[in-house]
Amino acid sequence: MYAPRFFVSMMCALLVFAIATYVIHGSFYTAFLQTVLCLVIIQVGYFIGVLLMVAKEQTRMQQKYGFSKEAGPSAEKSGAENLPPIAHSPKLSDF
Question: Does a structural domain hold residue 80?
Fold first, then answer.
């Protein structure tokens, strides 16, 4: 779900919904309230959809790479720990 495309599509759908509601009921106030309610329902659905996609991706990453919350840091040394020691300490004249 790409957000910009979703928002443009949502605005077009809401516009069509608002026009249809106005034509059916003949009341601007009713059309406005129902369109706002429709907007809230669409936004809640979009939020739930994004949460589900994130949860699915997290599960996929855990299965693929074996990540888990219970696992502590690995015993491997980081890149900085693998560097050889400096032969001399820096002096002011080195800069």
Answer: no
Cβ partners under 8 Å of residue 76, min gap 6: none
12: domain range?
A: 3-66
Which helix (H) or strand (E) is 33 found in, with range?
Answer: helix 28-65
> Could you tell me if residue 85 is inside a domain?
no
Do 36 and 17 form a contact (C-beta atoms < 8 A)? Answer: no
How many domains, the chain?
1
Q: Would you place residue 17 in the very low, low, confident or very high pLDDT band (cuts 50, 70, 90)?
A: very high
CA distances from 66 to 24, 72, 73 (A): 56, 12, 13
Closest to 21 (Cα-Cα) out of 34, 37, 6, 36: 34
In a domain, 86, yes or no: no
Q: What is the pTM of this model?
A: 0.58
